[in-house]
Amino acid sequence: MAKPIVLILAAIPILAAIFIVVPQLTRPEIQSAVVNSEDVMTIQYTKEHLQKISFGMTQSIGADTAEVLTIQSDGSTTYSLTKNGYSNPDVKYQLSKDEFTKLESLIKTTGFVGIPDTVYQVKPDATNYEKYGLHVTLDGKTVNLQWADQNASQDFIPPIITHVQSSLDDIVSEIK
To answer: Which residue from 72, 75, 116, 138 lies 20 to 30 Å from 36 (Cα-Cα)?
Structure first.
């Protein structure tokens, strides 16, 4: 009897977070009023494609592709790609003021920086998955998150994290 009660109590904060975040994510307009030109924001987003490799009795997890996107307060970005152990030259890119304002307002209005540093655990039987890392600093407040695809994760990945991930993936696809 204790398990259903514990599950219900554990679901309450998750549902509360969803009810707060989902309306923020579904609004199409950019709330540029919350963006301050004096804000200092840096973002480092990593994406790795991992595979579990078996060597008979031992196993290892290795990345065959690793991507790193770094965004500075002025919208300047650097994109790095390492594939099969070989690094490609870094690609420099400049986000438009609108793109950067949209990203900054997404992070500020949803309370993203208030999320505690978290590492979402990967299922032990996951063999082929994407792993993500996000390090955001906004006016001295820092959040550091690591997670895997929802299919490979033991934990529920909050929608705000996947929404910021989607926005950053869109920027990466622009740069490529």
So the answer is: 116
Given a contact cutoff of 8 angstroms between Cβ atoms, the answer to whether 160 and 110 are in contact is: yes
Neighbour count for residue 102 (Cβ, 10 Å): 17
Phi, psi for 65 (deg, rounded to 5): -140, 135
Q: Which two tokens stand for residue 70?
A: 């770094």
pTM: 0.73
For residue 138, the cross-strand partners are: 41, 141
Amino acid at position 45, single letter: Y
* pLDDT tens track for 53-111: 766 666 667 678 899 999 998 889 999 998 887 888 889 999 988 888 888 888 887 77
d(CA 54, CA 120): 24
Measuring CA to CA, which residue among 43, 16, 21 is closest to residue 165?
43
pLDDT at 133 exceeding the cut of 80:
yes
Average pLDDT, the chain: 81
Q: What is the CATH number of domain 2-175?
A: 3.30.1560
